Amino acid sequence: MTEAHDRSLRISPTPEVVDYVLTHSLPAHPAQAALAARTRRQYGGLARMQIAPEQGGLLTVLVRLVRATHAVEVGTFTGYSSISIARGLEPGGRLLCLDISERATDIAREAWQEAGLADRVDLRLGPAADTLRALPPDEQFDFCFVDADKAGYPGYLDELLPRTRAGGLLAFDNVLLGGEVLDPRSQGDAAVMRAFNDQLAADPRVDVAMIPVADGLTLAVKR
Ligand SMILES: C[S@@+](CC[C@H](N)C(=O)[O-])C[C@H]1O[C@@H](n2cnc3c(N)ncnc32)[C@H](O)[C@@H]1O
Predict the structure, then answer these.
(1) How close is the Cα of 59 to the center of ligand 1, in Å?
(2) What total number of domains does the chain contain?
(3) Domain that holds residue 116
(4) To test the ligand 1 pocket, which listed residue (100, 153, 172, 217) has its Cβ within 8 A of the most ligand atoms?
(5) What is the DSSP letter of 153?
(6) Domain for residue 6, yes or no?
(7) Any residues with Cβ below 6 Å from ligand 1, and which?
(8) N or C: which end of the chain has fewer CB within 10 A?
(9) What residue ranges carry the coiled-coil annotation (predicted)?
(10) Closest alpha carbon to 98 in 79, 119, 118, 83
(11) Among 1-10, 139-148, 189-198, which stretch is predicted with the lowest mean pLDDT?
């Protein structure tokens, strides 16, 4: 399949390349730099759970592309990705944020205030699968971003796809899991993610593109 393609024009995301990409993309919202620093202070190495900076502008552009007024995020943490999504919404748009951590989302609430986006965001605390199941069946989303517990991805797809409008976009983060999904012997989250990736790529309800940005981002447009 790919043997016939010349791969010499592919570039590795070295730090220099990522910096170049960042300086030629939508800049981060000023509130995101302060948020990243605060998250680092409070969470140390766990701050790596935030999306990569080069994914921030990408999310905003994708939200703009689908002209989203209704968006949902599964896995908000301290709010970095939610700012990228919320700033791309159409006027009057709303972002529903789902997470289980009160501590992390207290930081997110402050960041939304600082960014002037608090009036666009609804936060619901609790297991995201329960929150999604309890939504009215006719609640429709234009854009869905999934970045929570990896074992939950198949269930999130089941709940979100029927609630996504035709032409709407679903984005799933960390689909490469540091490359672990490529090893057929890997277990746990990697096995779940491998099965999820196989299932989504073959799902006739969506057109899928897996993007090797950061830890892997799959885009699925609903037919
Ligand atoms: C990778 S972090 C999200 C990072 C965030 N998107 C960002 O860019 O800052 C994953 C988040 O999912 C949340 N989470 C884990 N399991 C969950 C569940 N069952 N329901 C809702 N949220 C969950 C965690 O509390 C954590 O804040």
Answers:
(1) 17
(2) 1
(3) 12-222
(4) 100
(5) H
(6) no
(7) 49-51, 75-78, 80-81, 98-101, 104, 127-128, 147-149, 152
(8) N
(9) none
(10) 79
(11) 1-10
